[in-house]
Amino acid sequence: MPRSPLVLATSRAVAAIVGGYAFASAAAALLAMLLPLPRADAVVTATLLSFALYAAAALRAFATPSAWRAWAELLLPALLMGLAARGLA
Fold first, then answer.
1. Model's pTM, two decimal places?
2. C-beta separation of 53 from 30 below 8 A
3. Contact call for residues 52 and 24 (beta carbons, < 8 A)
4. Are 62 and 73 in contact (CB under 8 A)?
5. How many of the other CB atoms lie within 10 Å of CB of 3?
6. Which residues does 2 contact at the CB level (< 8 Å), separation at least 6?
7. Checking CA distances to 47, which of 14, 34, 41, 81 falls within 20 to 30 Å?
8. Rounded to the nearest 10 degrees, how much is the dihedral formed by the CA atoms of 51, 55, 60, 63?
9. How far apart are CA 19 and CA 36, in angstroms?
C-alpha cells in the first residue's frame, strides 16, 4: 500500500529525532565506560562525541532507502549498545 510523501517524511523525521537520540545516548553511555580515561574525562569525551553521533544518525535517517530501514539502522544498534552498557555497569 503506497504511503503519502508526508507520512514518509514524518516517519523519517521522528526516526531522526527519537532514534538518533536513542543511538547517541546509548553510544555515550557505552563510550563513557570503555574509554581508557579518568571517569570524569571519559564522560565528558563521550558526551561531546555523542553530539556528532546524533548529527550523523539524523543524516543517516534521511539517507536510507526506506523509512523502515532508517528506524532499524538507528534502533537496533542503540538497543545493542544499551544492552552492552548495562552489562558493563
1. 0.90
2. no
3. no
4. no
5. 10
6. none
7. 14
8. -170
9. 27
